[in-house]
Design a protein that fits this description.
- 42% of the residues lie in helices and 21% in strands.
- The chain is α/β, with parallel strands linked by helices.
- It has two domains: 162 residues, 3-Layer(aba) Sandwich (D-Maltodextrin-Binding Protein, domain 2), CATH 3.40.190.150; 99 residues, Periplasmic binding protein-like II (D-Maltodextrin-Binding Protein, domain 2, 3-Layer(aba) Sandwich), CATH 3.40.190.
- The strands form two sheets. It has a six-stranded mixed beta sheet, with helices on both faces. It has a five-stranded mixed beta sheet with strand order 7-6-8-5-9, with helices on both faces.
């Protein structure tokens, strides 16, 4: 009987502690791990989202960039962190390709999903002084000069690599793909004439486009980007694709969050997402926002993983 009372008392204290933890959350600053370099599109959207976290989340959210291994270093660090609610991470498109490409033993199943933030169409960009004025100019040159055109992207098997590779495969073009650690480095290489073409998110070229330093030949999407109404789609440029590849970004936490803490994180980060300042910043920077709750996000990722496995196999770049 004494042992039984002790057990009941222990369980009661445990439940009270759990409720108290949820009620007190967050009691300190939170870390947001970004798996790509500072200055790129993923870093920009992360910092924009948590710029006023004190107001929308209740405490500061400090961004830490952990780069390498095509995003696997940062996403792996989030997955391996303590599931106490004080580490969250940006997860990106590459998480959907690690398995099919044999790059890392990591998938969306290793996280507690929080929310999708956005989906971005790709852009095919050249320097302002490039010899190619249109997408057709570039495609014809690449066919006549196989493997000569260097195309920079933010990592093998990433959205922008697969986006350009799918286009090339569909229309018989031949590019020399050059991987970088994030789109910020791709932009630098393009401006320094170290690569001839950049494939990135359209939003990641906004400032350079407005400064007249680059020329975006086309957006790899079914419709023109709202923030870039003058740039044609690949279809309008004569190279339509039935299912262009879009990038995605979202938030996740280490697997095993207490349900009450997970609920707090989901609600608070949705408030940050819906804040007027974040929405205004996204429009200003050309970031196309798409929100999905955890269940919707999981369903999206499951479907995408299946379709990308087929695409990767068709392109012959899987393991």
């Amino acid at each position: 009987m004494v042992a039984c009372k002790t057990l009941i008392a222990g369980l009661s204290l445990s439940l009270v502690a759990g409720v108290a933890t949820a009620a007190d959350y967050p009691a300190k600053d939170v870390t947001l791990v970004v798996p790509w370099s500072a200055g790129g599109g993923t870093d920009t959207i992360a910092r924009s989202l948590v710029a006023e976290a004190k107001d929308c989340f209740g405490t500061n959210i400090n961004v830490v960039n952990k780069t390498g291994a095509i995003g696997a270093v940062g996403m792996g660090a989030t997955s391996a962190a303590r599931s106490d609610g004080y580490t969250i991470g940006l997860i990106t498109f590459n998480l959907s390709t690690y398995g099919p490409l044999g790059q890392a033993d990591l998938s969306y199943r290793d996280f507690d999903l929080i929310q999708m933030i956005n989906q971005s169409p790709g852009a095919i960009t050249v320097a302002a002084n490039s010899e190619w004025e249109t997408l057709d100019d570039l495609m014809l040159y690449s066919k006549e000069n196989p493997g000569v055109v260097t195309v920079g992207h933010a990592g093998t098997g990433g959205a922008w690599h697969l986006s350009a590779a799918t286009l090339a495969s569909e229309y018989g073009a031949s590019f020399n793909y050059v991987p970088f650690d994030g789109s910020a480095n791709v932009r630098t290489a393009l401006l320094g004439n170290h690569i001839a073409v950049a494939t990135t998110g359209i939003d990641e070229m906004k400032q350079l486009l407005e400064a007249g330093e680059v020329r975006v030949l086309a957006v790899n999407a079914l419709e023109r980007a709202e923030a870039f109404p003058d740039i044609p789609t690949v279809g309008e440029a004569g190279y339509g694709l039935e299912a262009p590849i879009y990038d995605w970004r979202g938030l996740a936490a280490p697997k095993g969050l207490k349900p009450e803490i997970k609920g707090e994180i989901i609600a608070r980060l949705k408030t940050c997402y819906e804040s007027g300042n974040f929405q205004d910043l996204a429009r200003e920077r050309g970031l196309p926002l798409v929100y999905k709750n955890p269940a919707e996000f999981e369903a999206f990722l499951a479907d995408l993983e299946t379709s990308l496995a087929a695409t990767i196999s068709e392109l012959g770049i899987g393991e």
